[in-house]
Amino acid sequence: QVELVESGGGLVQTGGSLRLSCAASGRTFSGYAMGWFRQAPGKEREFVSFISWNGGGTYYSDSVKGRFTISRDNAKNTMYLQMTSLKPEDTAVYYCAKFSGGIYYSAERYDAWGQGTQVTVSS
Vertex 75, ends 71 and 78: CA angle to 5°? Predict the structure, then answer.
């Protein structure tokens, strides 16, 4: 139902910052929670962050906690991921997704995905 499009990826040096955006179309954006996942070549897809429908509740993986900040602007139908203090191990394709309920860090609980945006952190 909902269409998601990520943007904002690119090449950045270690210690730098980058902000990803996820634009949503379709029905009411504010009606569902969202999340960010990432996948590096040859590695498993991993959970990055989660945000509730109104932005009041957020969760982060241990690997990004304290460095990344998730947010959303329902009036603009957009979710963001502000990434700071980037490390080479953050290099991956980042995906935004629509939560369908259940365990927030499980990719199996998301029912709509964007095409992904590449983030590369140089070492």
Answer: 45
